[in-house]
Design a protein that fits this description.
The chain has five helices and eleven strands. The chain is an alpha+beta fold. The protein has two domains: about 5-40, no CATH class; about 55-200, no CATH class. Strands 1, 2, 3, 6, 7, 8, 9, 10 and 11 form a nine-stranded antiparallel β-sheet that branches. β6 (about 130-140) and β7 form a beta hairpin.
Length: about 200
């Protein structure tokens, strides 16, 4: 707003502190004009509504099979979106004793930077400056590639953030196998992870 316009309104007895709500502000600015009006158009009142719980659930359903690491992320990583409790997939070094292409973990510590070299309980070494995450490892079980078990007594794993290929998906509880909780990975999520492996490989 230019100075002359403000002075004209002040002479008419209008003061900023007397504009009691958003509608008054819109009406005032529209009536006196604005130097940026050529760029913004007329002022209008927009209402911002709170997020409803059902909308959050709907959004989670919309995500469905999760979010993949890919070329669209450039030099970044989807790992910095992972929160405690999220499931995520990490590319595995092959060959390995379980004959799998990826690991599934549940986050217990979001992405952080190592201040010194570290070797985890599985003998994997990480170096100062690496970005890493910590999580509970889920092991593929049986002949079906969608079946997993969680060994609660197993130590937490540390993984490099840059090895994360897929995040924010679900493992559905299915019961107990040999005293350990069992889970199922949805087929479409498995397909997304497999696609991510090909894209990142």
């Amino acid at each position: 707003m230019n100075k002359n316009a403000l002075e004209r309104e002040q002479r008419k007895g209008i003061r900023w502190h007397k504009l009691e709500n958003a509608a008054d502000v819109v009406q005032f600015l529209t009536s006196v004009g604005c130097p940026n009006q050529d760029y913004t158009g007329k002022w209008k009142l927009e209402s911002i509504h709170p997020i409803k719980p059902q909308d959050v659930i709907a959004y989670a359903d919309e995500i469905g099979s999760g979010v993949s690491q890919g070329v669209d992320w450039g030099e970044g990583s989807v790992a910095d979106l992972i929160e405690i409790g999220d499931f995520f997939a990490v590319e595995a070094e092959v060959p390995n004793e379980f004959n799998v292409d990826f690991w599934i973990l549940q986050c217990t510590k979001p992405m952080y930077q190592l201040s010194k070299d570290h070797t985890d309980a599985y003998g994997c070494t990480f170096y100062a400056g690496d970005f890493a995450l910590k999580g509970k490892w889920y092991q593929q079980w049986g002949r079906r590639s969608t079946c997993y078990v969680r060994y609660d007594s197993s130590p937490l794993s540390v993984v490099r953030a840059l090895d994360v290929i897929h995040i924010k998906f679900a493992l559905q509880p299915t019961g107990v196998v040999g005293g350990s909780s069992s889970f199922t990975l949805k087929a479409d999520t498995l397909a997304e992870i497999t696609t991510s492996l090909r894209r990142c490989g």
